[in-house]
Amino acid sequence: MNEPSCRRYRADWRVAWVCLIGAGLLLSGLQASATDASAQQAARLEAIELLRRSQNESGRRESYLPQAFARIQRGLAGSKDDPLQHGQWLEALWEYHLLNDDHAQARQALERSLQFLTAAGADAALIDRVTCDLSYSLILVGEVAKAKDLLRRAIVSTTQHNDRDLLAELYYGLGDAYRKTGERLVAQRYFEAAYELDQASGNALKISISKQKLGSLARDRGEFRQAIDWHEQALQVFIDERNYRELVTYIELARDYAAQGELRLAQSYAQLALDDPRALPEQRIDASVLLLRLANDQRERAVEASRHATRASKLVRDIETLVNGSSARQKSERARPTHQLQFAEQAIRHYALNRDLANVRAHGQAAIRLARQVASDLRATHDDSLAWLTAAQPVLNEYVKALYELDRPRVLPLLETYYAQQIEPAELRHSGVVGRAYEAEAIDLFERYRTAQRMLVDATAALDRLHPDTTDPRRRQEAKSRLDQALREWDRARDAYLTMYQALAASTPAKEPNVEAAFRALTVPPTDIFIRYFVQEDVSFGVALAGDEIRYFDLPPRSTVQALVQRSLDLLNAPGGGAQVEATLAALAQLLPRDFIRRHANTTRLVIVPDDVMQPLPFSAIDLDERPRTYAPLVAKFEVVRARSLSGYYAARPAPPNAVAKNSDIVVFADPVLGTQPPQRVQAIPSSRAEAASIEQIFATRVITYTGADATSDVLLSPEVRAARVLHIATHGYFSRTTPDIVGLITSNRRGSIDPDGGFIGFTELFSAPFSARLVIVSGCETMRGKDYTGWGVRSLADGFLSQGAGSVIGTLWRVSDAATAALMDGFYRSLHRGAGSSAALQAAQRELLTSRPFADPYYWAGVALASSNRGYDQHSL
């Protein structure tokens, strides 16, 4: 009995002994592995310290960089069998290439690093940190869309493992990407979020880095004293820490003082940065471009013009060498896109002062190509394309200004070429397009985005209801704080959803059309006068065409035009302005080529391409009659149409898309059931149901109507409604100057929803798919208002319909009268039924109100306007 047990015991003992020996060997191996990893870590830290010292210690780069590179090479060779260590050594190699201004190699190092770290199952925080570094290199080689995508994904990941220090870095990185692409308000919010996390950490260096960016944004807003304070505080910390960002801050201070007009101080700070041996090509370009700008300023003021001309010529050559060298190292024409555009702006100024047209055109055309390339890369992410083109607008302004002075006949063809490729609002998409593999998660993220958008609408409405003169300042501050928090939540929800959106691969922009040849072959019909505006602070003009005649006419600077437009909106926002309104509408006539219009007395249509600052202008109400106490608005004589371009508007009308089965001639969406909570605590719109009834009476069986509880967001998303020939939407529009990013329509709740706030459909969801309607009427309030994109117009509901395929859109410029709009629409549809085109029908309806007793005031009829993509649509709507 005992033998088996003993034998078993001996067998168990032998197994235990073998296991003990194995465990000892494993422990020894683990200790050796740990020792090796520790040695690798120590060697890597030494290499990184050498890299940092080469950057921070003046004049030591040539000594430290080779030493660091030798250690990195040894580390890479010694870690080939350890993916985790190898991946981290590749991160050190990235920093080495960064200091050699070789961002193409830096990018490759980090992409390989991520491959090794992922294969090794590295900690998510380490992967997110490397991702953050990679995004920086991508931005510098012009791949901004991919950089933003990586940062958004890393933020989602880092939020899950709650690494606040890394989250601050990622917020900072995404803020920087948004700033570089022109979205300064979004950048501000991300920088503020990073700054708050940095403050909580107590790291003085990181706090100062965030202060530096916040100071730059303050300067962008015109708050120069605030900018200088932020930058001086940051500078002191960098000096104390002996950190290279000292010279970066010199450049920012130089920009601050230049913006404030203190050119001597600006020049001294810029020269300090340029002369500092620690400066990398990035800082040398920044400092040199600023010095070139200052030299150009002095030349324009005729201050020692010859000396500054010589200095400017040398700076242009030096910057070209730096920029071309950097592009060659990156093997990319898009390398450092913001630097290239800043240089092009000042180079164009320099050559224009020299009256060197050939070089003006060379730099201008190169800048346009670059702007388009980056816009194409950004086209699939939110409003990034439009924001980027707005950021690039200063270089186009300088180019247009130079041509306007040196070669005026090329100006209109240039504008037609540059703006011909309309940038579609490639917005967030509804979850249905994301892809089946991500459907469930995408729906959840999209609903979070919609919830955040709704919270933002509520917070905006709450603040807008508080009168600035009578409300307790404490209540206003609380409401402002809630709005700021809602904006941040909206940013994060939007960017989280964008991680699920599968952006299209960037394509090469289409070959530039020969607009000059097309322009020469094009004749404006004898019935029309075409007017295009270009209104900026330094160059402001319009160009008018009628038949074969073309006329350029000068305009006041942008700030003056903006004040005129705003005054007209303020006075026309309610009836009864009387003499003040008439005087303002007469003053607006200075924005028109009056003599040109009078000379072409037989024309009956004005086709206008307004830029963003003139988009809210009620053109139809402008008084051309110079006699006192005589009001003769444009609409009394002209059909008034807004267009996007000369060549596009007068081109042969494109074939309509395939119609959806069972589509109707006219679909009417009206009188939704309003919620009981803000922001739906608005007046009912009983006349919207009257509009629907009037249209049904005129067109009978050709109309499908959705009213009351049936007027839901889902109706506007349905293919059948989007394919109607005419889509009429009579509901409240949402727009607030406080948060112009958000525009939308009030709808009834979706079926089964018990949300007391009622329905709301925003720009993002509404334009998730195309429209094939020939005409869309959006008769709610301010449906032609939205976020301004300088030079590119306004992101409004009306613009969204045009961008997504609608032929023409009728919208509103202010909070229109419910009853007057119903009367106007009744007249409009009666004319439409008699065979008039939409522009002629709108003119007839407006003239009818103009001559009526109750609605003669321009407030009632001038706020309704027509925008068209092509003449064929507004000539033949049905």
Question: How would you concisely characterize the structure shown here?
Answer:
The protein is α/β, with parallel strands linked by helices.
Write the layout of secondary structure elements.
Layout: H1 2-56, H2 61-78, H3 83-99, H4 103-119, H5 124-140, H6 144-161, H7 164-180, H8 184-201, H9 204-220, H10 224-241, H11 245-259, H12 263-275, H13 281-300, H14 305-330, H15 337-353, H16 357-378, H17 384-391, H18 393-406, H19 411-418, H20 439-464, H21 473-498, H22 515-521, E1 528-535, E2 540-546, E3 549-554, H23 558-572, H24 579-587, H25 594-599, E4 605-609, E5 639-642, H26 646-649, E6 666-672, H27 686-699, E7 703-708, H28 713-717, H29 719-722, E8 726-730, E9 733-734, E10 744-747, E11 759-762, H30 763-766, E12 775-778, E13 786-789, E14 793-796, H31 797-803, E15 808-812, H32 818-833, H33 838-850, H34 858-861, E16 864-868, H35 871-875
Helix pairs in contact: 1-2, 1-3, 2-3, 3-4, 4-5, 5-6, 5-7, 6-7, 7-8, 8-9, 8-21, 9-10, 9-11, 10-11, 11-12, 11-13, 12-13, 13-14, 13-15, 14-15, 15-16, 15-18, 16-17, 16-18, 20-21, 23-24, 27-32, 32-33
